[in-house]
Amino acid sequence: MQSIVQPLLEWYDHAKRTLPWRGVSDPYSVWVSEIMLQQTRVAAVVSYYTRWMQALPTVEALAAVDEKTLYKLWEGLGYYSRARNLQKAAVIVVRDYAGVLPRSVEELRRLPGIGDYTAGAIASIAYGIPVPAVDGNVLRVLSRLQSDYTDILEPSAKTRAFDTLSPIIPPDRAADFTQAMFELGALVCLPKSPRCDECPLGDRCNAYRDGLTTELPVRVVKTKRKRKRTACRHLRFAVGGDRLGRVGRCGRLHRVGRVRFEHTAFAQSKARIYAYHLEYGGLLGGVRR
Length: 289
Ligand code: SF4
Description:
The protein has helices spanning 5-15, 27-37, 42-55, 59-64, 67-74, 81-97, 105-109, 116-127, 136-145, 155-165, 174-187, 206-210, 228-240, 277-280; strands at 246-247, 253-256, 275-276. By secondary structure, it is mainly alpha-helical. The protein is globular and about 55 Å long.
């Protein structure tokens, strides 16, 4: 894999897009752009990012902003928890780090809304630390380069990607390497129709050589299972409360309808539940007549 570094960086030097957060090593700017880019296309983020940085140019400004302004700046991007976490983390950064984001991945990971990927992106892009930032683009590129059939939705795929990239990131160009991998996934190694003829890594890519680009990466989407455990926990609580559902002859709870939990901690998130013997009865063996 070491052989991908030079051609990738040479390609990035001339093919990279001009973006407002590119070429910026201010950790706050990198952080805001990376959070905005989660689940959102680059083109859509540009205007939001520009507006945000004009209104809140520093971590201190973000920490002090009122909720209404915060939401207004985020309006349209969706997933408002991202904005809330940005502010929560900003308060911590001001309080504990004198307004400067920490350098270490471990400390970054402890801040609200910052996971492995974002921590790696901030550490490498803002601080030049040679640590991988593994997102979906990176997983796709690596899966194809190596003809790796690991399901990229499995945590083990991220671990493998991390282990593959860690030893090859050039210490003097960690920021460029991280962004070059993103850029290759965004512009060339596209999910459906990769542009292999234009790819700087075409002569090193197993999937291209073997005609496997449409098969890779492997993504096995699992169907969601019903949250029986959670429902069961709620039901047990209902049984202990004042307003019970009907208890069947079998001794199990038959039905709980519109049970209110104002007096419980659940009230904040679950005002009412509906549960049926057929679905959950088997989990309520402890209910007495
Ligand atoms: S050659 Fe094609 S499949 Fe391989 S990394 Fe490049 S764009 Fe992706």
